């Protein structure tokens, strides 16, 4: 893989253009402190209205500034609204309210909707844009590590049902993705760490060289300069683009990106149900460690590879979140069975064959495993996490 130039070469204001490499690709424009260039990029696309939706939590940090720049360039074509913070916006109620509001405010097929915030805000707005009049154009301005290196590199737009995550959704490609790494300077460390978990995942599933690179760059306290952060973001983006290049459909080989997510989504959902604060990447980090143990139990990988997960996630990245006390083996299996209803098949997992490769015995990266084995691996994992917490 190509690694980005050293951080000392950071040039604020300079915009680099990449592509999402998907079946319906989107240009991804990335740089540090590049807001001044946004009007020119937007101006390439004719629109009657620009509807801007900004996550409440970043309105003061960066939202007001983005809105002011757009108003200066496009005057009364610009409308602004604020979304509830983070995951709270991914509801059917919010989706309906947003769509009705767009219609009432005069949105047409010539309008553009812009989402600014983390993966949650971009998911909600992307879904609304994909549904309105069977699809209008939208722009994503992700402001978190997860948003910039993971969720914006997928055309998957979704909200949650009352029973699970991302149950209502579609594929809808953004007109453009605008990644300003300056926004990450205000992102809380815990959220940033959670986003970096998916970068580690990219190394485990596809690219051992990238995992080595991360081992050299990650530091638990996350004390990065703007240049270091920019370099890290660019390289994690490139690590995911390499995977998407191999499967622009996101449905075949791309399924390896779900490593750790079958367990992770179940853990995240159960934690939320019991009022425990757990961020997506933290749940996925538990999920990856469990998937590694399951791969070990099936004789696919060594103890050393299992230990490498712990080393990268806990020692290198500094994720020390306690496994939620409310998550039990039975509860997690029930949550996974319920979440899996959408496939109509038994629960299946992405498993590791070695560092950098997922198991694919019969042309399918999703592997069904005897639930008794899964149960036993979960019992062992949860017991070891509980004793670690007591130590
Ligand atoms: N479509 C996909 O393929 C995909 C991939 C990964 C994650 N996701 C989704 O993304 C969501 C998680 O997104 P997330 O982790 O980006 O968090 P988020 O969108 O839930 O936001 C979390 C919090 O961070 C705050 N915030 C955002 N940017 C900030 C900044 N720069 N400075 C300070 N605070 C800031 C927000 O106000 C919010 O309170 C989940 O819903 C997940 O399902 C989707």
Characterize the structure shown.
- This protein is an alpha/beta fold and 391 residues long.
- It is 46% helix and 14% strand.
- The strands form four sheets. It has a seven-stranded mixed beta sheet with strand order 1-2-9-6-5-3-4, with helices on both faces.
- Helix 3 (92-104) packs across helix 4.
- The protein is globular and about 60 Å long.
- The model has no long low-confidence stretch (mean pLDDT 94).
- The structure holds nicotinamide-adenine-dinucleotide.
- Nicotinamide-adenine-dinucleotide binds at residues 55, 57-58, 61, 85-87, 90, 117-121, 123, 143-144, 146-147, 150-151, 154, 156, 165-166, 183, 186-187, 191, 195, 280.
- Residues 83-190 form the 3-dehydroquinate synthase N-terminal domain.
- This is 3-dehydroquinate synthase.
